[in-house]
């Protein structure tokens, strides 16, 4: 995760293909067949290359935290194993090791000079406000992530060599025309359906649940109403916002910033400006004398054969006039006045002002709080890495988070949450570091030091520790009665809607026209035209449209409605399949090409692994992900 944050998009299209390869790889050649007994320290090996259990576990936890962050809630290790995340991560590492072995056999390499250029060009290694690579800032970022320059460079070399190898395999795969035509027919097919939308109202009013029914439902679903495990988490968040509160900004600094950026606090004064540029100072002086004698600016312009297009600069702000001397002269004149000769960039000029539109700005006192806050935040961003090092020094000396916070003037917050980030009252809690901190706290015991969490986009750092654990427990019926009632009502409503939908569909299947079924049920008959696979339309979700395409023309079906628990009773009344290719097939061609490239890469990895041999230590694998090994 750290390296991906530092690279910020270093990998391109080939990396996306590789991710698909890793996802499909278990399906293609399966990992169950390669479990073997191994040594005590390696979770897997590819040929002579071993993958240590410690490194695998770290990558597995990193991926678990990343997915939790994307989901907006903590994913438990049990859920992750159910999704197959443990096997996917291991297989990714096996694929990496396979590519490394093949790259070494082919003598592929990346030079130090190329890596150095890419690091120097990476904008993420520039200090805030800087336009060039900052070696000191680069080292600070590496230290903050627990990396050395040698480790980071080695990792980048390894990644780029793999990309070289993969790119050489996947490029230039062509799509057969027959496949393109088949996909066009499949994707271009449209359907029309007549349908009845069955809602809870159409299903009728449900009787109020009895106490016995609720208790029976509670007894049958006790696990759903358990009070989850809670953990009290102490959190020290070092963010620009947290640091800015302690930063002092003087009135002088705020006023200077106001004067420097005043344009953003209103509209500057604008003027309609004209100018005549002379080739010599003598000609400009002679024109000035004529104006003093009674001639107008327009007279001088006309005598020189100049039109308004030649002399007008338009209604402009001072900053919009490129020549500073002309700008200064124009904005020092009274309305209608003509300047003395001005030595500008392109010659000697006379400047004429024909209109003045005063500026309007918010007063300094009104915007002062905003300016102070901005200056505080800007300074906090510049000192945050230094403060990070101070916190790490305190931790290294053995200080607790509480002691560190007190010594450095930082705030230590406490949160009592379950794995999904909710407090005992059921309210969602905003924990600094989000899913990374919550999942990490649930993986650690009280008193055990945890890894620092780096917030994305330079948002700061979070240190945390598990302060206390409240075990999960069964709730009593009285405690859970409100939730039981809600769940029971939802379940019974869904059953009633499903039963009503089935009743209506059975009538239609028995020969009653759907329009008559609709009229008898007092539910309007509606028509959905031009339905496409995978596209939501009206009450049909993208998933429920699949049900329409699973039925033949004239057939009936039931689909989930939007919102649930609605059901849709439908009849497919028309099927249209395109017979000609569309004029533009580039999107489909590109997608098919990517899929074919994926197939090539999957087969390539499978062949190499078969040649090298893959072994996995089942016992260590299970221990690393916190499960019990299979017997």
Automatic annotation (TrEMBL):
GO terms for molecular function: peptidyl-prolyl cis-trans isomerase activity. It comes from Xanthobacter flavus. The chain crosses the membrane at residues 12-32. It is found in: Cell inner membrane. InterPro entries: PPIase_dom_sf (IPR046357), PPIase_PpiC (IPR000297), PpiD_chaperone (IPR052029), Trigger_fact/SurA_dom_sf (IPR027304). This is Parvulin-like PPIase. Signal peptide: none annotated. One of its GO terms (cellular component) is plasma membrane. Residues 268-355 form the PpiC domain. It holds the Pfam family Rotamase_2. It comes from the Bacteria. Keywords: Cell inner membrane, Cell membrane, Chaperone, Isomerase, Membrane, Rotamase, Transmembrane, Transmembrane helix. Belongs to the PpiD chaperone family. It is a single-pass type II membrane protein.
